[in-house]
Amino acid sequence: MEEKINISLPVEVEYIIDMLYKNGYNCYAVGGCVRDSLMGEKPKDWDLTTDANPETVKNLFSHLQTVDIGMKHGTVGIIINDKVYETTTFRCEKGYGDNRHPDAVEFVRDVKEDLKRRDFTVNAMAYNRKDGLLDFFGGRRDLQYKTLRCVGDSKSRFSEDALRILRCLRFSSVLGFSIEPETALGMRESVQGLKNISAERISSEFFKLICGKDARFVLRRYKEIFKILFPEIKPLFETKIKYRDYNGVIKERTLWQYSAGALSFVKNYQEKDHEYALRFAVLFHCLGSPVMEINNITDCGFETLSAAVAEEILLRLHCSNSLSETAVALIKNRSADISEDKASVKRLLNKFGYEKTFLLFDFWQCIYRGINIPEIKKRYFASLKCSEMLYEIVRNGECYRLRELNITGKDLISAGIVDGKIIGSILNYLLNMVIEEEVKNDKETLMKKAKEYFLKN
Prior knowledge:
The strands form four sheets. Strands 3-4-5-2-1-8-9 form a seven-stranded mixed sheet. It starts with 10 loop residues before the first helix and ends with a helix. β12 (240-244) and β13 form a beta hairpin. The protein has helices spanning 11-22, 32-38, 54-60, 111-116, 139-144, 154-160, 163-175, 181-189, 199-209, 215-221, 223-229, 234-238, 255-262, 272-284, 288-295, 302-316, 321-332, 342-368, 374-395, 409-414, 420-435, 443-456; strands at 27-30, 47-50, 65-70, 75-80, 83-89, 91-94, 104-107, 126-128, 132-134, 147-148, 178-179, 240-244, 250-254. Helices cover 52% and strands 12% of the residues. α14 crosses α18 and α18 crosses α19 (374-395). The chain folds into four domains: 11-137, Beta Polymerase, domain 2 (2-Layer Sandwich), CATH 3.30.460; 146-221, Hydrophobic Seed Protein, CATH 1.10.110.30; 230-395, no CATH class; 402-456. The protein has 22 helices and 13 strands. By secondary structure, it is α+β, with helices and mostly antiparallel strands.
């Protein structure tokens, strides 16, 4: 006897399904929400599919607010308790001239026809209480075996929408699923279609992908696909570095293997742009090394070249200025001086601010961790020590910028020092003394030092 699957649906989803059912229409929760529920995870969004056409859906829910999300493709948003529930008419699609969007959409009555057009078996399941789980293509089995498999012919699925290639890689990275051989072959055979996908779409999928728990495996295993997106990484596949493991054995790996592997040391951040910038910097911080080696460049550090190439990629991906600036700053400072003293940490805090300094220490720890080379190990442990000091400085409210200095320009004006340039020089002089712990950050002491400086200059 087949096991009965029960999925707990939100009351709002049940309401939409029941309303359509009472009026003679079928309706199901579909796609990622069903997949996540079967995996024991709470879905972020609930999408529905129905045999009712969009106008009928709007009429049936006219007592609620609705939004026309994509009427041409059959999608109406039903708003309940400030949340949008996308409800789409069963459809089949024809022609994908741009490798992304269907040339024509035809509404159908059969839910199986709708599910057949979807990308992967794990996303091609539907559910309601009446009919239970609809799984025509083995999605639940693939979930159990943690496998990504296309619905139908893989090359056709990826040719229809090349973005599915990145979605597949992203699912593999985030969920830790393997990609079955025919699906992997279909991706490789259709990879040129990625050139037709917008930068914004690629950027969205790529940054989610590099945040996945298995990102390092996906990046290494499918490097030829990533080369289509980022031709600049090809030299990293061929440039090798030698290192000694902790058993003293000398080993070799490519710069791409090393950079992708370092992603596994990145922590999850609440602020996603910070995590994206850090992960991007970790992955692409070696871009300049092969360029210098091939062209025999010796008049600049490879960090400068790496940052320049990385900046071009970020520009191409249409990333925000904040994300780009942070990632480039991390790469540029890959080999910045690491001194295990508070004054050095405060100087970094003054230069970059708290958030970027915090990211810089994390960046160093990720790229230096696990490399058994004395100089690298020294930098790794120094970065750990600096992180501890950073927390202590911030926790204790210690001064590292002008706003925390216990003297202001107004205080100096009151003391008879009115020249703006001199005031700026004095404040920076005093801040440097406080950072170097040459004087205490109290108003009386600072005023005394300010007057001494003024008389000398």
